[in-house]
Amino acid sequence: MTNKGKMKKTQVKYIYNQGTIENNVVYAFLGIITLIMMSIFAYNNSPLVERLGEDGGIYLLMGKNLTQGGILYKSLFDHKGPIIFFINALPQLIIKGPFGVWCLEVICMFISVRVLYQLAYKLVKTPSAVLVPMIYLWGTCLFLAGGNYTEEFGNLFCILSLAIFINWIEDEKKELTSSQAYLLGVYLSLVFFMRPNNIALIAVVIGFIGIYTLKYMPNKASRYIVYGILGIVTISLPLFLYHFQQGNTLEMLNATILHNLKYCSEGITTMRRSVHLDSHFKRSIFFYLCISLYAFIRCKIYKDNLYTIFLGASTVVVLLSVVIGGREYIHYLVIAMPVVALASMLILKHATKDLKKFLGLRFNLVILVAIALMSYNCYSIGKPFERRSIIKDYKDQAKVLGAYIPEEERNQVFGYDVPAMWFYINDMMPCYNYFTMQSWMAKSDLAIEEGVNHFVTSQRPKWIVTYYEAAGNNHYLLNEIQEDYEKVAENSSGYLYRRKE
């Protein structure tokens, strides 16, 4: 080999090693800020706070019940798909308590930000690509509401689907591999069987690629469809077989689809009656639309037509998915963050000369400002020690009530409207499948309240714990408690009643 050839080979090797080192530094940086942000904002399961949470407490308790041999939807019920309960069960097989689930949350978030950085660098090809995962992490944490929600876990698969889309659109041939079509089917099923509302972005990816393929390469469409269906079957078939073997297939479908539809319908009706949206929710939607619109305009200016159409479709469909939830819960907006990440990539890709110049000259300053803002939000919004103090008081009070119940009678406790975390804190399993927030669930399904009342009068559980005194507005249950039960204790965690002998 000539000296010139050796020099060229050495130069290529140096550039490769330098790029690898730079990427490793970025990944380490993203890993550190992910760990810090998730410690503070994923506070439901974070060891820094361990609040457990309302919905998160339900998933934890149902996951724990699975590890003890319980049957989904029959032992305990919630109107979500089975995947979220399996996600909460698997870590608890290894580590007792919520810490294992939090570790899984951190891993999912780190994979998400790493993939987003790789995608952003593919489009932008400058160090400013690191801003995209930082924006995603920052925005998601602000909407996380404590974490351990279907939206949070589902976003990982939405981002992986987005990665397939970007790799497809950047490919000159615009061809999917068989494995990519298969994975899109897998991701769609995984998210659908957590919560159907959250599949919006994946559905747009599949729809966009499908329409393009049918229009320009119809001969390849059948192969994509076959592998996509195979991916769907890979997840859905074992789920159906598992639930069929457990004898609760109909209950699973009811919880995943039918009950969710009733819930959304009731929520939309409530929204129509309400003129005002929560201001934070409204501001967040406004920001989402603004950043998407600006990215849309930049793509239009540069005639980046495929990205323009995809971004517009994604923005609208994801927003509809948020709205169809029927309530102004801030964690619903988590599913909008992959679209915000895509919009950020496209803004950087088609940035103005002034923006490119500014980022080139002041990149370190931009990163420092972003870190400073994140740090401020950790202090002003995260408030980990304040949250820890509040939940510690609740845990202490819950344990005081739980201590009245003898060990041998802990499987005879019926809860009415108490948070699921009350049972989790006391290491108990409720004796009825509709075990929490019954009055709220009954708004979308009156049969739930009827079932609760029938259970109490027919089975007469030894203990009843309620969030409101004497079951609040459930007058039937109130009369039952007043006649057949005596109050044993009360505190800020609830009211405890024992059946009269």
From TrEMBL:
Keyword Membrane: yes
Keywords: Cell membrane, Glycosyltransferase, Membrane, Transferase, Transmembrane, Transmembrane helix
Location(s), subcellular: Cell membrane
Topology term for the membrane: Multi-pass membrane protein
InterPro entries recorded: LipidA_mod_glycosyltrf_83
One Gene Ontology MF term: pentosyltransferase activity
Top-level taxon of the source organism: Bacteria
Entry keyword Cell membrane: yes
Cellular component, GO annotation: plasma membrane
Residue ranges crossing the lipid bilayer per the database entry: 21-43, 99-117, 129-147, 153-169, 199-217, 224-244, 280-297, 306-324, 330-348, 360-382
GO process annotations (BP): lipopolysaccharide biosynthetic process
Protein name per UniProt: Glycosyltransferase RgtA/B/C/D-like domain-containing protein
Organism, as annotated: Cellulosilyticum lentocellum (strain ATCC 49066 / DSM 5427 / NCIMB 11756 / RHM5) (Clostridium lentocellum)
